[in-house]
Design brief:
Distance between the termini: 19 Å
Number of domains: 1
Strand content: 25-35%
Order of helices and strands: EHHHEEEE
CATH superfamily: Ribosomal protein L22/L17
Radius of gyration: 17 Å
CATH topology: Ribosomal Protein L22, Chain A
Length: 115
């Protein structure tokens, strides 16, 4: 049984979230929440929020125990970028993008093969 949660249009760069996603992929859900609690980055807070939502979906919608959940997929995709301009020398302007992220976490009730 697989359960998922999605957070869309988060105002942070996808590369910053992907670093943290690699850390929690394949771990038990409870362990990942405890691990993310002590990482002092904005992305850790956003991933933790999405992970807790997926755990709540599993408990409330599918009657699964939170202790047996394992993170099988963490997908971090790019959303639409907000285009802005920064003033530059001699009256010119340099374009830059404010990136937006979509986070998708998939949990499974299977126990990992490594344990």
């Amino acid at each position: 049984m697989e359960v998922q949660a999605t957070t869309k249009f988060v105002r942070i760069s996808p590369t910053k979230i992907r670093d943290l996603a690699r850390v929690i992929r394949g771990k038990r859900a409870e362990d990942a929440v405890n691990l993310l609690r002590f990482i002092p980055r904005k992305g850790a807070r956003l991933l933790s929020k999405t992970l807790k939502s997926a755990m709540a979906n599993a408990e409330n919608n599918n009657n699964l125990s939170a202790d047996s959940l394992v993170i099988t997929k963490v997908l971090v995709d790019e959303g639409p970028a907000i285009k802005r301009f920064k003033p530059a020398a001699r009256g010119s302007a340099h374009p830059f993008k404010k990136r937006i992220t979509h986070i998708n976490i998939v949990l499974s009730d299977l126990t990992p093969a490594a344990e």
